[in-house]
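FAQ
Q: What does a multi-component entry look like?
A: The components come first, one per line:
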Amino acid sequence: EDKVVQSPLSLVVHEGDTVTLNCSYEVTNFRSLLWYKQEKKAPTFLFMLTSSGIEKKSGRLSSILDKKELFSILNITATQTGDSAVYLCAVDNNNDMRFGAGTRLTVKP
Amino acid sequence: NAGVMQNPRHLVRRRGQEARLRCSPMKGHSHVYWYRQLPEEGLKFMVYLQKENIIDESGMPKERFSAEFPKEGPSILRIQQVVRGDSAAYFCASSPPIAGVGETQYFGPGTRLLVL
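Then the predicted structure of the entire assembly, as tokens:
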């Protein structure tokens, strides 16, 4: 059965720290992996990854995919309190999209 | 504990027909959210419901779309007189009845609607 596993489930850091969030998956017919940031309501799209080894970057956030080892990481450098949220990983397998349970990140001042 | 269930997983409708999408939340969850995803785009919030109550429908189109979450049974997203532009993946998520910002939502596998 297809599955997406995120780790850690919860993470507390202080402002300025760098964090790495993990997403591993087992799906058939992989098409893409997506990262979202979820705060109050709707998840905000961060990255879509389709190819291994190509880092995607947006400001302090970056992400990379390893299709051989079936995982992706999301890095956040110089964290700020505004980065506090649940970060969701989802995998599109051409038939449906499977979401992980999310990593809850708390950034303390 | 079964996850969030959505059915059907795929739905094909002709223009003008009605589409009904169902979402059964995780056991113990009383909050349901509906999202729409267009190709190559992120999730777009549509509506947030609790049992027998619509909390926030700011993302719902004003016409043809409605949602409910009855006391018994699944939440239903209903699209009347579908048009080709309604073709998309519709995701449902549920969360437990705990107050707070950014409660973890658990997503279903989605319903892919295709309007011919």
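Q: Is there any commentary attached?
A: Sometimes. For this entry: The interface with chain B takes residues 34, 36, 38-45, 48, 84-86, 88, 90, 95-99, 101-102, 104 of chain A (CB under 8 Å).
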